[in-house]
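Order emerges. For instance:

***
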Amino acid sequence: MNTRLSLSDYGLILAELKGKLVFLQQICEAQKCDNELQVKRVQCESTTDSEYQISFDDCLLFQCRICVPRNFELIQKILHEAQNGCLSIHQGTTKMYNDLKQLYWWSGMKRDILEIVSRCLICQQVKAEHQVPLGLLQPVMIPKWKWDRVTMDFVSGLPLSPKKKVAIWVIVDRLMKSAHFIPIRTDFSLDRLVDLYISEIVRFHGVPISIISDRDPRTAFHPKTDGLSERVIQILEDMLRCCVLEFEGKWKNIYRCLTLHIIIVFNRA
């Protein structure tokens, strides 16, 4: 992390913190030992039409992405951080690739990601199979504005948190696909849930026009009932299982990161 201090006109000290990639220094050192990347560096210095550039950190870039040499140990470190980090939570091949390709470039990236995900024991334990449902779907009205029409459902049976929370209330905006996850207890009254909804949802997004909810446990994960909520819940439960296995069951400390993950990850829809 880089820190820059400056003095304002009023005599106040202003501090600016700028994040830095964890493996940037290692990548820059490894580039010097890669013959192919050294050739690209020479070409970049001799012409301005190349797709390669040299950053202010003296690191070779390809289309503004850091060039990672074919160094097995270094690539495995990058993939392990992307696979097991707190903000990624074993997100799968497609989303992991779309996250990494914004920062890095190396030959065979997608193949390496597919290999590490296929060999991940936690991913194999928690990921659900997806099957096309039988019959015809009955689509609901398409929202015209964000948070006008929402869906909601509950995830229960979670490990007991320090504040005695054992369930999560999932509320999803049908237009933007963004979600709020609210930890609750199973003995909360309807009045308590209404207060939570006003403080966590209405306060930021207003009162919705319609709410779709299916609390019938006989149709869990069934897309014909409330497909959007059920799909988000399935993603959430996959991540919570990963948390239980990766972080020893402390889901309460990381559920807010799951909200961020749902918002920022690549969505094929």
